[in-house]
Design brief:
Rhopdopsin 7-helix transmembrane proteins; 3-stranded mixed β-sheet; single chain; GPCR_Rhodpsn; 3% strand; olfactory receptor activity
Length: 324
């Protein structure tokens, strides 16, 4: 058995990828390249549409730009390395590169959870306090809310990633994953009490930063629903509810993929299922967000067709439209 050391010099990690799909590297490359291009193009279009149309310079769309930028960064932390693995069998990653990827992946995961909370708060103020909304959700407040989400989320993983990097690893450590996920790297470390503690600590923090934002989003929508139910007209209630549809779909997609990823951590789940569930989590939400906000949002849809008239002609899109 190879000796283990806490010395980081000259160490590398070997990413196994999908053990059961080693004979399908080229198809995997094509599929993930397509996903990556769709994510980058879709989110870039959302950013362009919102920036170009001054009528969309509102708090909700400011947060939508943040979400689009986040999704582009989030997928860029993992997919390019996966593409290199599938195309050129480049399965090794340096010690520092591995932990940078780990930090980026988990930090941006938390950022998305906190941005969804901020967007829920924006919908709460717009529906529950419509008269005070312009005064409360000023440009300065919007920037402060978004900055708080980014900074807080990017600070949370620092202690765990730092402590994990201090565990003992072999000169070449085999990681049963497509990227440097925290749990996969900890499981690859030399087995000792520290590794078990890091597993427990990492899972506890992951659960906390998932559950607490979900509770805040749920609390916001409880207040929103109670306010909407006080509206006398059915049309007014439907219009108020329609302003939250896109955000609720994104929240549902995000937390559904998290549940699948957490369930796959069970010891009796095959490695391929665990790896695939984490990969789906890292791709699904960034892939669906532009689709949801394009089809479900009347203002974005209209401006999208105006900005890119030759790239999309959707005769049935009006069926999906709803006003913000």
């Amino acid at each position: 058995m190879e000796s283990c050391s806490s010395n980081a010099s000259t160490k590398v990690f070997f990413l196994v990828g999908f053990p059961a799909l080693q004979d399908f590297q080229t198809p995997l490359f094509i599929v993930f390249l397509l996903f990556y291009l769709l994510i980058m193009v879709g989110n870039a279009i959302i950013i362009t549409v919102v920036v170009v149309d001054h009528t969309l310079h509102k708090p909700m769309y400011f947060f939508l730009i943040n979400l689009a930028v986040l999704d582009m960064l989030f997928t860029t932390t993992t997919i390019p390395k996966m593409l290199a693995m599938f195309l050129a069998n480049a399965k090794t990653i340096s010690f520092r590169g591995c932990f940078l990827q780990m930090y980026s992946f988990h930090g941006l995961t938390v950022t998305e959870a906190l941005l969804l909370v901020v967007m829920a708060y924006d919908r709460y103020e717009a529906i529950c306090n419509p008269l005070q909304y312009p005064a409360k959700m000023t440009r300065r407040v919007n920037i402060q809310l978004a900055a708080s989400a980014w900074i807080t989320a990017l600070l949370i993983p620092v202690p765990v990633v730092t402590q994990t990097s201090r565990l003992a690893y072999g000169h070449t450590t085999t990681v049963h994953h497509c990227f440097c996920d925290h749990l996969a790297v900890v499981q690859a470390a030399c087995s000792d009490f520290s590794a078990n503690f890091q597993t427990f600590l990492g899972f506890s923090i992951a659960m906390t930063v998932s559950v607490v934002p979900l509770l805040l989003v749920t609390l916001s929508y409880i207040h929103i629903i109670l306010s909407v139910l006080k509206i006398n007209s059915k049309e007014g209630r439907m219009k108020a509810f329609s302003t939250c549809t896109s955000h609720l779909l994104v929240v549902g997609t995000y937390y559904s993929s998290i549940v699948v990823a957490y369930v796959s951590y069970r010891a009796d789940i095959p490695v391929d299922v665990h790896v695939m569930s984490n990969v789906v989590f890292s791709i699904l939400t960034p892939l669906l967000n532009p689709i949801i906000y394009t089809l479900r949002n009347k203002e974005v849809n209209t401006m999208f067709l105006y900005t890119f008239p030759s790239t999309l002609h959707c005769g049935g899109c009006n069926y999906f439209n709803s006003s913000i």
